[in-house]
Amino acid sequence: MDKKATGISAKQRRLAATATVLALASGAAAAADASSVQIFGIIDAGVLTQSKSAAGGRLTRLETSGLRQSVWGLKGTEDLGGGLKAFFNLESHFDTDTGGLHGTGDNGTPAVGTVLFRRQANVGLSGDWGTLILGRQYGPALLAHIGTEPRAFKEQFSNLYAWAYNQLEPIAGAGSVNSNNDVGIFFKNSIHYRNTFGPVTAGVLYSLGEQAGSTSNNSILAVGLSYSGPVTLSFSHEFMKDQITGEKVVKHTGVGAAVPFGDFTFKANFLRGENNNADGTTSSKVNGLGVGVDWKWHPMNNATVAYYDNKDKENKSNHTKNLVLSNDYFISKRTTIYAQAAFVDADAGATGAAALKTSIVADGSFKPDAKTTFINVGINHNF
Predict the structure, then answer these.
(1) Which segments does the entry list as coiled coil (predicted)?
(2) pLDDT band at 10; cut points 50, 70, 90
(3) CB atoms within 10 A of CB 95
(4) In this predicted model, what pLDDT tens digit does every residue of 208-260 receive, in sequence order?
(5) For the chain, which terminal residue's Cβ has fewer other Cβ atoms within 10 angstroms, N or C?
(6) The total number of structural domains that make up the chain
(7) C-beta of residue 269 within 8 angstroms of C-beta of residue 149
(8) Is residue 278 a part of any domain in this protein?
(9) Higher confidence at residue 292 or residue 104?
(10) What is the pLDDT at residue 104?
(11) Assign residue 100 a region: left if phi > 0, alpha if psi is -120 to 50, beta otherwise?
């Protein structure tokens, strides 16, 4: 081609080429700016003492995760344009007192073992249409009750444990197994859709059973709904099927409400956990009732009083009544010092593995047929 005929000089062509390169570089930089990766975590430790223990007398120990679980993880997002985003979550659970990975409640019988990313290992997409998450993740049922559980499912002295242990048996006992269920909180092999419709947030999760010849065996369905308006309301339901028989070996339902009134928030939450054997017969049916009040008595302090009454209707001597007093002192946005006391009145049947089903204590170490006092003081730091 005749360069003169084009009317573009060599200098102009070089300038145009430079401008093109700069534009491409700018676009690449913008794309890079549209994505981010973040390391995050919680480190929590304190001292826990109890007046009696299931094994004998007074016990004092360094306790991990009194307020919230100790975790570290990576999360990232990328803006794909048009309101669409990609994201991932990797979250590992460890014990601050030993530095070891926290044991899990999945992977068959018995319910032992460690998983590097126990809490989350997932990837997904989000947009105006909602959020789709694939992989190991938190279930929508528990998430629905965070605002209505009297102590917001704190790691110690809440019905987090009555929730969890009432969904552990299909892994550890009675010859029934659902290998996707890690204490009804974390689910493997899962597809989870979430969306918010005005004041209502809804989540539906399905864990694929991955059993040859059956799409039902070993599967899980979990649903959670929450309403945030003048009051907060919550509802959940989930069931888990046996790996071999396809029987519903766990059925779990919850309802809750929270009502603010000035510096106070009054809360009530009811949980029903039913465990069945692989042949369909019922082994336990636990009703867990929690009521409480939060008091924001100072900009840096929040106090809570909560009462829990947990009873197995199939084994009526497995019954605990629990009173919890606590205060969280927010030194900064990242660091909290907490003090909490629990008074546990346990009937004679609240012993051994059965005690865990009615427990608000992480390891169920209260003494059966007795009253046990627990005091826990610790520090929680977020990064």
Answers:
(1) none
(2) low
(3) 18
(4) 999 999 999 999 999 999 999 999 999 999 999 998 889 898 999 999 999 99
(5) N
(6) 1
(7) yes
(8) yes
(9) 292
(10) 83
(11) beta
| Gap between the Cα atoms of 68 and 45, Å rounded | 9
| The two structure tokens encoding residue 139 | 């279930």
pTM summary value: 0.88
Q: What is the dihedral of CA 368, 311, 258, 91, to 10 degrees?
A: 70
Domain annotation covers residue 4: no
Q: How many helices (H) and strands (E) does the chain have?
A: 6, 18
Q: What is the pLDDT of residue 11?
A: 47
pLDDT digits (tens, 9 = 90+) for 103-138: 887 755 444 568 899 999 999 999 999 999 999 999
Where in the sequence is the domain holding 306, given as residue range(s)? 43-382
Length of the chain equals 383
Nearest to 172 by CA among 107, 116, 237, 246: 107
Q: How far apart are CA 315 and CA 58, in angstroms?
A: 28
Q: What's at 149, amino acid-wise?
A: E
Contact 134, 122 (CB under 8 A): yes
- CATH number, position 180: 2.40.160.10
C-alpha distances out from residue 112 to 158, 182, 208, 241, 324, Å: 23, 11, 22, 20, 29
Residue 53 lies in a domain: yes
Residue 7 lies in a domain: no
pLDDT at 34: 78
